[in-house]
């Protein structure tokens, strides 16, 4: 569960315009209720009947739970194999549609911009868009979350020059 | 753990310029490790030694865990007593400083803007800034997270007119 001792991906591997698609995480009802109980106990995340009366139309995952599930898929697909240094933040996080138990989530990541970090020459910044797509019980797929944000990665060239 | 049957707060109660301060949640190391294991198993969130070598300088909570803890404090302070209808999204989420086990977190919420929702006349939108402040082991307090985002609330006047 920890990053590889020798990273496979460095800053140079996130080229603007590149697209990665990954995931396939089934949203589990017990997990939805557990996350909501701990962090977001609003009725539409905890109670089937209250959720039916809400704008969600049915029991829906906390938006923060969806973010956390997207993060897990990012870790499993590339972050744990990358020289990742964390993230300074997110821009334009949109919860576009509810996420329901039984949905299967996947992620489409598009690199928008990459530049070296002025204050730390061995670090590069990558700005990406992540979209979470939910396959519903009826087989339709919808974009349920969209966000843009920054990641920090060690630079391969600088790492190798220093080695 | 569910919202009051009769909400105390409606859209009209979130006036631009108003400030609420609340919270006091101690960051628990086991909770940090549990969240990271499930959602963000990067070494600096799971392993003390790896974290010391990272930009964080020590074991730090996942940024998504910090968001979730802020959400819990929002629920306990006002959301569970409010005619809350969820949120369309967040702008400018910044993870400014690491959050460490033992920190005590509180939230400062400032309402920036409020307007009725064009497409749903019984709903009002509120744009707020939330800052999370961490009191460290040495007693110093720092802003560790800042975000702006939207909440949707039922309008009192419209609710009462319809009753």
TrEMBL record, chains A, B:
Gene3D superfamilies: Hotdog Thioesterase. Signal peptide: none annotated. Residues 16-118 form the MaoC-like domain. It comes from the Bacteria. CDD domains: YdeM (cd03454). This is Dehydratase. It comes from Caldimonas brevitalea.
């Amino acid at each position: 569960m920890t990053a590889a001792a020798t990273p496979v991906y460095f800053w140079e591997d996130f080229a603007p315009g590149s697209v990665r698609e990954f995931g396939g995480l089934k949203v589990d009802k017990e997990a939805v209720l557990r996350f909501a109980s701990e962090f977001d106990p609003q009725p539409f995340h905890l109670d089937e009947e209250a959720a039916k009366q809400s704008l969600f139309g049915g029991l829906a995952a906390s938006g923060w739970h969806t973010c956390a599930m997207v993060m897990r898929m990012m870790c499993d697909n590339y972050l744990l194999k990358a020289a990742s240094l964390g993230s300074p933040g997110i821009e334009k996080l949109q919860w576009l549609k509810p996420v329901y138990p039984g949905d299967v989530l996947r992620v489409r990541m598009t690199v928008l911009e990459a530049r070296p970090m002025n204050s730390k020459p061995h670090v590069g910044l990558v700005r990406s868009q992540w979209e979470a797509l939910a396959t519903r019980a009826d087989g339709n797929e919808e974009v349920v979350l969209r966000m843009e944000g920054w990641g920090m990665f060690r630079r391969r060239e600088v790492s190798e020059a220093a080695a």
